[in-house]
Amino acid sequence: MTSKILVLTTREDGSGRFSLTHKADGTTGISRMSCDLSAADMRQLVLFCEGCDLRRTYGDPIAVELQLDGLLLTETPAKGEIHVLRQIGYSEKAAQVEREIFCAEMAGVVETALNHAEQSKHGPLLKSMLAETQLPASLVQGLTDDESAQVLHRLQEMALLILSDLSLEKGGRFAKLLRGKKSRPEAEAYARDLVHSLAESLVVPKTSELGSQMGAS
């Protein structure tokens, strides 16, 4: 059996390090791959992990790729694993990590990224805005109240990471809307639309899925 040790560490500035040690079947040596990740890359890693998990639980699982600086991750739902490709110049190293192992190691990274977003300059305001968002009934058909609340909470967390970045973009549309009191309603609409857009891409209403299956039969 292939043995693997995945370690994801985070730093105070939000950056981190990806490290994977593995021993493949039929080999005697141990292979290692590692790379430093910027704070922006770490946030993208969190969004990748959360998005894949929502699709797997409430949507339509599909193969999804995430390209970071020197690191390519591919979610392969059918195999229940994450394919990792480390690129250094013309050199490449590849390995697979079980999805459960990857998600378990990501738990601390998710918490750290959210803490950074909440403590950012506009974090409290963004959290307040997102707390007012709701999902259209058409997107939560077939979900229990608890499931709907869980989906909304996770989508709000993803939106917080995205909006905290956008709020710091000089000259960016959302940053401008956020700074002006008169344009605050537009900023709130922007945040609401983002949550809805994430829901539409990650969540499949169960009744629609059932209807499609009945129609196909």
SSE string, helix = H, strand = E?
EEEHEEEEHHHHHH
Task: Work out the number of β strands.
Answer: 7
Largest sheet composition: 4 strands, antiparallel
Mean pLDDT: 87
Helix/strand/pairing category? alpha+beta
What's the gyration radius in Å? 19 Å
Percentage beta strand:
15-25%
Spatial arrangement of strands, main beta sheet: 4-5-6-7
In one word, what is the shape? globular
DSSP helix count?
A: 7
User: How far apart are the termini?
Assistant: 41 Å
What low-confidence regions span 5 or more consecutive residues with pLDDT below 50?
208-217
Helix content: 40-55%
Structural account:
The protein has about 220 residues and is α+β, with helices and mostly antiparallel strands. Helix content is about 50%, strand content about 25%. It has helices at about 40-60, 100-120, 125-130, 145-165, 175-180, 185-200, 205-215; strands at about 5-10, 15-25, 30-35, 65-70, 70-75, 80-90, 90-100. The strands form two sheets. It has a four-stranded antiparallel beta sheet. Strands 1-2-3 form a three-stranded antiparallel beta sheet. α2 packs across α4 (about 145-165) and α3 (about 125-130) runs antiparallel to α4 (about 145-165). The radius of gyration is 19 Å and the shape is globular. The N and C termini lie far apart (about 40 Å).
